[in-house]
């Protein structure tokens, strides 16, 4: 069994032989953390001051970085002389986030971040990939101490055990995985830009700064202001629950996507299973509505939703209504009417009294189709991200 552990299942064909089990401290020239005494920090200054909040998902987030004086940096850097190519690893608070330092400049670390400098016959990029892999994250999680304040010590970091091939094989693996990381980052950036673009377009469309025109190039008529309950039926009367159905609760939906479909029997259904769905119904999240985990329902079959949702049915363009429910101005009005602190919620009466604006049905359709096409691009990009991560 030990021999099996020391040889990977998937391997580049030009390599053979067993991998060697080593502690991280045996393959590192230096492992240390930053200062344990917090210096005075500023929004601007001479030297960057990196804490655990700046290390995330393979890169350094510097938009919220702090700075310290030359004197404080000099004092910290004597002990913690982090250099380009070193591996950064968060060890307090948010634990296990890691990246390679690509900065050419000197900077200081707080004790919540450790750095690892490898020996010349080990690849820092390979060790970074080990740390962020499932194997590395399980090793980190198993060594975390503390309940209220979670942390991992330098001693435990030194004692992390991994299997290592030769430097040449390390480099080959690291180069390959780095290329995959770069593809992932590009896809995530693309998704983020699409989301920002959609948010900006929604603002312009629903404020009527941007208008569609009809087939002959003329503008559509004026928009009307209506209460949601005037143009939509909120929680319509339902027929009897079917004998078997897919139950949709508040955990089933994320970002407009139905993540899971669990079929249950009527007699096993929770008391909250009351919203019998028809095609083109909208489910609006009533508890913590700022999460916007709403659903446009377009499926066939027996589906029943929890009373944690408001069920919205309309003779208007239902996709237009669905998109408008995500307009920040509408969401703000919902939040204003919420009660409760830990689980703020809105009731169906207050929801139905919120005003929305409606163009003609033709213009609703054009707006809905355009925004839906953006959603499809965003969802397609997310699918590519998921596939790449799994692969």
Q: Rg, please?
A: 27 Å
DSSP helical segment count? 12
Distance between the termini: 26 Å
Mean pLDDT: 92
* Number of DSSP strand runs: 23
Shape summary: elongated
- What does the largest sheet look like? 4 strands, antiparallel
Q: Structural class of the helices, strands and pairings?
A: alpha+beta
Question: How would you explain this protein's 3D organization?
Answer:
Strands 2-10-7-8 form a four-stranded antiparallel sheet. The protein has a four-stranded antiparallel sheet with strand order 13-22-19-20. It has a four-stranded mixed sheet with strand order 17-14-21-18, with no helix packed on it. Helix 9 packs across helix 12. The protein has 391 residues and is α+β, with helices and mostly antiparallel strands. It has helices spanning 2-5, 24-27, 70-77, 124-132, 134-142, 154-158, 167-206, 228-231, 318-324, 328-336, 348-352, 361-390; strands at 20-23, 28-33, 47-50, 55-56, 59-60, 66-68, 87-90, 98-100, 107-109, 113-118, 161-164, 224-227, 232-234, 244-248, 253-254, 257-258, 262-265, 273-276, 282-285, 295-296, 303-306, 309-314, 355-358. 27% of the residues are buried. The protein is built from twelve helices and 23 strands. It is elongated. The longest helix is centred in the middle third of the chain and has 40 residues, at 167-206. Helices cover 34% and strands 22% of the residues. The protein starts with a helix and ends with a helix. Strand 4 and strand 5 (59-60) form a beta hairpin.
């Amino acid at each position: 069994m030990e021999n099996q552990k020391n040889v990977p299942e998937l391997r580049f064909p030009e390599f053979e032989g067993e991998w060697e089990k080593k502690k991280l401290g045996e393959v590192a020239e230096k492992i240390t953390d930053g200062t344990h005494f917090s210096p005075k920090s500023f929004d601007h200054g001479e030297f960057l001051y990196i804490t655990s909040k700046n290390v995330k998902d393979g890169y350094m987030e510097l938009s919220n970085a702090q700075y310290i004086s030359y004197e404080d940096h000099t004092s910290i850097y004597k002990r913690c002389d982090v250099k380009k190519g070193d591996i950064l690893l968060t060890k307090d608070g948010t634990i296990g986030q890691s990246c390679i330092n690509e900065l050419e400049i000197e900077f200081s670390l707080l004790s919540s971040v450790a750095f690892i400098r490898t020996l010349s016959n080990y690849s820092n990029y390979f060790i970074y990939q080990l740390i962020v892999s499932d194997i590395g994250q399980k090793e980190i999680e198993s060594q975390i101490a503390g309940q209220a304040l979670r942390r991992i010590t330098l001693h435990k970091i030194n004692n992390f055990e991994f299997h290592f091939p030769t430097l040449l094989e390390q480099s080959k693996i690291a180069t390959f995985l780095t290329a995959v990381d770069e593809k992932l980052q590009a896809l995530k950036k693309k998704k983020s830009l699409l989301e920002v673009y959609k948010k900006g377009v929604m603002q312009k469309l629903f404020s009527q700064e941007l208008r569609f025109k009809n087939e002959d190039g003329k503008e559509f008529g004026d928009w009307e202001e209506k209460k949601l309950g005037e143009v939509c039926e909120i929680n319509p009367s339902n027929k009897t629950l079917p004998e078997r159905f897919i139950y949709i609760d508040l955990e089933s939906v994320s970002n407009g996507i139905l993540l899971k479909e669990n079929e249950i029997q009527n007699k096993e259904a929770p008391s909250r299973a009351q919203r019998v769905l028809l095609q083109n119904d909208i489910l609006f999240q009533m508890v913590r509505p700022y999460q916007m985990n709403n659903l446009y329902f377009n499926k066939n079959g027996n589906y029943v939703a929890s009373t944690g949702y408001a069920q919205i049915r309309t003779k208007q363009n239902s996709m237009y209504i669905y998109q408008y429910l995500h307009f920040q101005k509408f969401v703000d009005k919902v939040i204003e009417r919420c009660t409760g602190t830990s689980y703020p919620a809105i009731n169906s009466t207050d929801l139905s009294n919120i005003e929305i604006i409606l163009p003609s049905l033709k213009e609703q359709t054009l707006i809905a189709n355009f925004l839906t096409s953006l959603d499809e691009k965003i969802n397609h990009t997310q699918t590519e991200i998921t596939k790449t991560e799994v692969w």
